[in-house]
Amino acid sequence: MSAISPTLVRHRASDAAAIAATAVNTANTASASDTLHASNATPLTVSVDCPAKTNLVLHVGPTHEEWGGRHELDTIYCAVGVYDTVTATAKQPGAGFSLAIEGAYLGDLASSSADMRRNHAALALFAMAEAAGREPDVALTITKRIPVGAGLGGGSADAAATLLAVNRLWDLNWPVARLRAIAATLGADMPFCVTGGIARGTGFGERITDITPDSEQGLRLAQEGFAGQVLVGAYQSQLSTPEVYHTFDVVGAGAQDANHLQASAVSLHPRSGQAIEAATAAGARHAFVSGSGPSVVAFVPDDTVADQVITAWRDEALVDRIIRAIAPAKPSIGVSH
């Protein structure tokens, strides 16, 4: 099989989108600061650009029955400036919700068998409607740019963006703490994605302690190179998070891995390990599997090293798609009437 030459994307939140699309409609289905302020007049449309996430550290502990068998985690989240956009538009009362998904790289989201009612954004809308005592009469459109099934939290970003958008669309003006509490019922890293930046996650990942840029830990992370330019090496193939955790339960963590899932991901997707080695040899300050993989994240100190890593990845066809971004990143909210 011939190697695939990777494409390079310089990512901005305002990138053009809409190549492939899939939608569902039903009429019978029931930046963050400490407070997200709403205008007096209810906006008709709210768009939220929400960044991907990676894990600078991901320590995996034992499973807990009270968490449905999920593993205990101690992680440092970092939001990476590759953005999905969720647009929420108010619909007539009783019209129900609709969901459209568009983008060039949809992965299994493009499958005709995908149940859009189980999409993370739809579940977030339903959770907000239940908490607010309202019907989910909202049209959602997701413009996908975050690679799917890649360990970058794209589904979690879409859910967080929906929480932020609906909070503004319905003039709820709920504080971040309340949005995070709702997010925690939906997934481990969704509470982090509500605000982005850098934060520590404990519990099964849902208990968030923000790390501000001017804090001692924030400054130390920046000095260690966990800020600034980032390259994301993405793949056409996807990894199942449950499969990676199952493999971890068998093989455990690599001796020197800050991400305890890295050895498992690399065993299932060897190109990720090769991309890490190449990025490190080319001068990246840090290179590792993002979350459960298979994507690889490389923090680089300058344009010269970035170009060296890109060349290494391209020459050996070690990744399928290369995205240049900045970290840490934050969600942004736009309103139109």
Automatic annotation (TrEMBL):
Residues 124-197 form the GHMP kinase N-terminal domain. Residues 255-315 form the GHMP kinase C-terminal domain. The keyword ATP-binding applies. One of its GO terms (molecular function) is 4-(cytidine 5'-diphospho)-2-C-methyl-D-erythritol kinase activity. Pathway: Isoprenoid biosynthesis; isopentenyl diphosphate biosynthesis via DXP pathway; isopentenyl diphosphate from 1-deoxy-D-xylulose 5-phosphate: step 3/6. Signal peptide: none annotated. It is an enzyme of class 2 (transferase). Belongs to the GHMP kinase family. IspE subfamily. This is 4-diphosphocytidyl-2-C-methyl-D-erythritol kinase. It comes from Bifidobacterium olomucense. The gene is ispE.
